[in-house]
Design a protein that fits this description.
CATH class of the domain at 1-107: Alpha Beta
Number of strands: 5
Radius of gyration: 28 Å
Number of helices: 12
Shape: elongated
CATH topology of the domain at 1-107: Conserved hypothetical protein from pyrococcus furiosus pfu- 392566-001, ParB domain
CATH superfamily of the domain at 1-107: Conserved hypothetical protein from pyrococcus furiosus pfu- 392566-001, ParB domain
Strand order of the largest sheet: 1-5-3-4-2
Largest sheet: 5 strands, mixed
Helix content: 55-70%
Amino acid sequence: MNAPFESQKVLMLPLDRIRVLNPRDRNQRGFESILESIRRVGLKKPIIVTPRIGSDGEPDYALVCGEGRLTAFRMLGETHIPALVVEASDQDAFIMSLVENIARRQYRPLEILSGIRQLAERGYSPAEIGRKTALSSPYVSGILNLLSCGEERLLSALEKGIVPLNTALDIVGAGEDDLALQTAMQDAYESGALRGRKLTQVRRLLECRRAFGPFASRRPKRKRSEVTSSSLVRVYEKEVDRKRLILRKADLTQKRLLFVTSALRQLLGNEHFVNL
C-alpha cells in the first residue's frame, strides 16, 4: 500500500454519493447495537471514504471503512454523514477495508475469505497477503487451499469455531482415506483441539461430507443400492476392521495400566518413598 495518504479531512457528505467497495454480510445483533448507539448518542467515529468522479461528472466517494455506520444512517433517514476523506487507489481502499474487518474485536473468519481470495486473484502471494492483513502466511495458505478445494462445509465449521484450521487441512489432505481421517481426528483429540461436543459435531460433518460432498449447498438424494452378497461382505469386513481397531486400542490401554500398576507397586514397596 502507498505510504501516508496525501490528504485527510472530515466532511459532511451526501449518502447518495457514497458507494460500497467491499460489501459484506453482517451480524444482525451487532448491527442493531450500532443502530441504537447512533440513534441515542450520534456518530462517535466518522466513516472513511476516498474520492472518485461519478458517471455524471460530479464527485463520488468509495467507502473504505464504516459500512455498518453508513447503513445505519440510511435507515435512520439521514441525508448526510461525517466522513474522513483520504486519497487512496481502489486496491489500497480494498485492503484497508479488509484489514479493518480483521481488526474488529469480533469477526467471523468467513467474512474475510472473499477478500483473501480476491487478493490472491490479483496476484498476491500468501506471504504478501499475510503482511497486508496481519494474518500468518500458513493461515492464508490454508484458507486458499480450502477455497480451491471448494470445502464449504469445512469453511463453515471453521467459521463457527467447531474445527481448527490445522484439522480442516488434515481432513482435506486425507481425501477418501478413512485411516488418514481417523488419524487426523485422533491427533486433534490428543492435542486437545477437538473434545466433547466439538468432536461429535466434526464426526457428523465428515459423514455429511462423505455423503454429499464438500459443498454446503449440495444435497443430492442418496441412491438406494441393491443388497448383494458382495455388499454384505464389504459391510462385514468394514465392521470387522472397526472392531479390530477397538481391540488394538483396548490392548494398548491394558498394557499401559499394567505398567502403571507395576510401577506403583514398586514405589509403594520402597520405604523411603512411603515415608515421603
